Amino acid sequence: MPKKSICIKVSKIHGEKTILLVRKLGFIDRNLEIQRNRNFLYIPLIHQPYESQLEILKEQVADFEVSTHTFPERKKHTKTFIELLDDQLSPHLLASMPRAMDIVGDIAIIEIPHELDPYKAIIGEAILKTHGNLRTVLAKAGAISGTYRTREFSIIAGEPKTETIHKEHGCRFHVDLAQAYFSPRLSHEHKRIASLVKEGETIIDMFAGVGPFTIQIAKTHKNVKVYAVDINPYAIKSLKKNIRLNRVEDKVYPIQGDVKQLVEDKLSGIADRVIMNLPEKAIEFVGAACKAIKPAGGIVHFYGFVRAPQSLEDLKTRLIEETEKYGRKVKGILFSRFVRATAPYEWQTVLDTEIH
Fold it and tell me: Which terminus of the chain faces fewer neighbouring Cβ atoms within 10 Å, N or C?
């Protein structure tokens, strides 16, 4: 609710210096928002300045006046879940608290260090209290593993579920985190790759999962054909739901199976573009990608890991050598970058490669 208050009116050129000084003197009203217009700042005060405070201001600020102004109330600071736990955990335990978590739909995913294991429940409840849109908190209970690239979780707060609907760049995804891999941290990559696709292209998404690359491409292009492949039947089940959910049935062809065999049997030489988002093993499928690309050539988006002391240049060299084994040439690396850190001294990377 707006409130009329005594204030310091000062030209913008002296504004930041005056704010710091009024704060230091201890009579700024922190419950009200500082206001600005084209020429002046209005700094709300808790009381009329004392003579001693005015003298200090006059010594250090060239031009100001004491006035009145109407101020909106400052929005209340929302506590983080760590701040909420401040009086429940000792300082050394708070120091071990992870600062980041993944949010997929209405589910939070957090990695709890071993020393905080006895406090999982109160950590989960604190996360729910500070994030009103969440319904469930999952703690990672193992590494991503197996042919289907899944991870075990323990439910530490909220509804006992691993399924949700996740929204990303205008698309919706049905995700069951216990049955198929999904990372919200690749959101930028999903959008970036979709923005590179041209109308009329045929794309093979070799490790499609629940379809974040595939659906984004189909949703943002009128005339594309995307073959979305995954060996995980549960991922394909969710992918089919997502195709219907996003109304892209006429552009996406979901196929469950081993992509090497599928390229051999039916997807050879048809692709303008291939997406290889399986960083731990994508190098083993370069031969399939080379066979899938049209004889005239095309683009391969290759995702891999770089682990120190290896460099991005080392990964490029390995990809070029692997491509040449299958009778193709790398015409150029169009784009490369570290996508995200995945462990100490380990990064997921992407190489956009033109091959012919």
Answer: N
